[in-house]
Design brief:
The protein is mainly alpha-helical and 263 residues long. The chain is 79% helix and 0% strand.
């Protein structure tokens, strides 16, 4: 996997790589800006409810604001780890088009992939809304209870060790293998392939994303750390071992946090 990037970055593919880099950079820039301004008093009604010690129930506008935040943050975190798959898709589609077969737009594949993470963002927003209204989140949007934080850590750790996790991770770690088994013709086919890859990626990473409620949804160090873990699992030569070791560590950490809350 470590040699995948130079293998695909010929001149036309370099443009696709640069486009993905720009998309991720813009998403990270917005996330950084939001983290810097979210708890500032001058944010007004959209942000103030998130920053108050005793937050009032969300309005639909505030929920929409949080949905946009989650969506952009998922783009920032997931596009870098999906880049190998997208670049290989572009290579295969370009080679097929050069042979006179129907052209398949790479942007459609990317759109299908991001559509799944947009759906995940909606679910995460709904979960945050419920936790917020139940007063289970601190103003930093982290779990207010050590028991909740410990349970989330341990649950994510257990999931890291399950067959479902590793089945999904295996599909994310083998871009060419995924395309050979999942290829579909035409624009609709590209969209469906993007959806399927997004589904495998979400199945692999959803529990790690839930840990944002432990460290703080807009804690940039926590967000960056989780993004690096996801990237490492997908592209490092022993990424699957990283996931298993991380699972054991998360279980131990969760137990320690939960027991501290009982003390």
């Amino acid at each position: 996997m470590g040699s995948l990037y130079p293998a695909v970055l010929t001149r036309p593919r370099l443009l696709v790589g640069l486009g993905l880099g720009l998309l991720a950079a813009l998403a990270w820039a917005y996330t950084l800006w939001l983290a810097a301004h979210m708890t500032m008093p001058e944010m007004g009604s959209t942000g103030m409810a998130m920053a108050m010690p005793n937050p009032v129930p969300w309005s639909l506008g505030q929920a929409g604001f949080m949905f946009v935040m989650w969506t952009v943050m998922m783009v920032a975190m997931m596009v870098p780890s999906a880049a190998p798959m997208i670049l290989v898709f572009h290579r295969v589609a370009s080679d097929r088009a050069a042979k006179g077969q129907p052209a398949v737009p790479t942007a459609v594949f990317l759109g299908g992939y991001l559509a799944v993470w947009t759906g995940f963002s909606a679910a995460a927003t709904a979960a945050q809304w419920g936790l917020h209204d139940a007063a289970l989140l601190l103003p930093t949007m982290a779990a207010a209870s050590p028991l909740l934080g410990g349970a989330l850590l341990a649950a994510a750790g257990v999931f890291q060790l399950t067959p479902l996790k590793h089945a999904c991770l295996a599909r994310c770690r083998t871009p060419l293998g995924f395309l050979l088994t999942e290829w579909r013709e035409g624009t609709r086919g590209a969209w469906e392939m993007g959806l399927r890859h997004g589904a495998f990626c979400t199945g692999c990473c959803w529990a790690l994303m839930a840990l944002l409620f432990v460290g703080g949804v807009m804690n940039l160090l926590w967000v960056a750390a989780l993004a690096l873990v996801v990237l490492g699992e997908k592209v490092l030569p022993r990424g699957e071992l990283l996931g298993k070791l991380g699972g054991v560590a998360l279980i131990a950490w969760g137990a320690w946090v939960a027991l501290g809350g009982l003390g």
